[in-house]
Amino acid sequence: MSADGSYGVRVNDASGQLRMEGSYSDVALNDRHGAFSFYHANGRLESAGTFAHGLKSGLWHCATVSGHARVDRWYAGLPWDDLQVFLGLATRAK
């Protein structure tokens, strides 16, 4: 556990290549929270961004397997039902 109470995790594939690194807020490693990076099998960065209690949040940078930048994506950090309301696609039941 780090000083901020999070649990850092690094996942390697069978050949030892780093595939993911990030932090979780719980010891059971169910709640992704903080910076995360995912890697292609060749070791190049696939995507990097932030999770907020299990949901992608903010700007995520993505790249192809050859390392070329793909379109960045923005995530609201909201559950699906809340995101639909946020986008004006649904209203809250009263």
Distinctive features:
single chain; 94 residues; mainly beta; six-stranded antiparallel beta sheet; 6 strands; flat
Textual characterization of the structure:
It is a single chain. By secondary structure, this protein is mostly beta strands. The protein has one domain (7-86). It contains 1 helix and 6 strands. The chain has one helix at 80-86; strands at 7-12, 18-24, 32-39, 45-52, 55-62, 73-76. The protein has a 6-stranded antiparallel beta sheet, with no helix packed on it. Strand 2 and strand 3 (32-39) form a beta hairpin.
The largest sheet is: 6 strands, antiparallel
DSSP helix fraction: under 10%
Count every beta strand, where a strand is a DSSP E run of 2 or more residues. Answer: 6
Topology order in helix (H) and strand (E) letters: EEEEEEH
Distance between the termini: 42 Å
Strand content: 35-45%
SSE layout:
Blueprint: E1 7-12, E2 18-24, E3 32-39, E4 45-52, E5 55-62, E6 73-76, H1 80-86
